[in-house]
Amino acid sequence: MRLRTLFPLFALLLLLGCRPTAAAKAPWSPSARSADPSPTLMPWPPLPPTPTFLPAQTPTVTPTPSPTPTPTPSRVTFLFVGNIVPARCVRAAADQRGDDRYIYAEVAPLIRQADYAFALLNSALTSQVPPTGCMRTFLLVGDPAHAATMAWAGFDAVNVATNHIKNGGDGAFLDTLEALRGAGLAVLGGGRNVDEALQPLVLTFGGVRYAFVALNEIEERSFAGQDTPGAAPLTEANLQKAMQAARAQADVVVALPHWGPEYHATPLYEQRRWARRFVEAGADVVVGNHSHVVQGMTILDNVPVFYSLGNFVFDQSWSLETQQGAMLELTFEGRRLVAYRFIPVHTDGDGTVHLAPPDEAQAILQRIWAASPPLATPTWEAGS
Least buried of 164, 176, 335, 352, by fewest C-beta within 10 Å? Predict the structure, then answer.
């Protein structure tokens, strides 16, 4: 029993004794442990691989075109005045002084401020007819030298589509044209024949073309004919012809009719009818005259109509109304009328034009407004 127990142990020892002799293992020491390679520590979770930085390429930038700015329309101011009649007592006073520039001296700075100023001449300028002196007569003739005075005052163009422009006959009218053009003034509303008289005056400011058409309804003896000089007659056919020519050449058309009866502040039917015809034919603004007193204004299909500016230079000192008038200033930005301004004036019997003092200026504007449909209050400038 004991022998059986020891036999397996003996067999196991025998087997171990038959294995090759193993090399002696060095005893453990700290230095021996430190000679083992250190473990590599790996982070967790694993990091992404370190990126490789290549030289940066300059990106191609396609510029976005800036929107083209809308140009600001150029601003231009036109100035208009009432009847200028350097005849009778006005001429007599100027002859006595030896210089007629006194007539415009006070208002010349305002005239010159405008980009373009229009005079309205309602008398001939000729030496063919002797001066009448200071007397009541319907023969209205002025000194040809007055053309240079108007240019000195700041006027750029003269409208001759008026009823007294041929006083003295065809020769006197041609003298008038010669005097005006000799003074460097443009002429509209008259010519050596009706075709020339109907031609518009076309001006360009800031790339915008402005045409001015002047026609006269009053006094057939003043009219130009096919072969005779004079003012452009206001007829339906001539209105259409002149307006068509203006519209073909310009972006903005201003009509300048000489119309209606004298001394009526309220525009009468015939003027209103003609105003409608001008608007229908394409006028952008209508500035009329003749009445020797200021008249009202209106708006027709968004077109302003100024019926009359009264007198500017005349000797009609027999009533306050005929001594009062207004300059009219129209301001455009490109094709658009953006402002208008009345500048009330008072004229003495010798023709001297003054800026109306505040009380009188207000009275003049009230008369204009009383003869006008309800509109916004007009702007105005009074003398100091």
Answer: 335
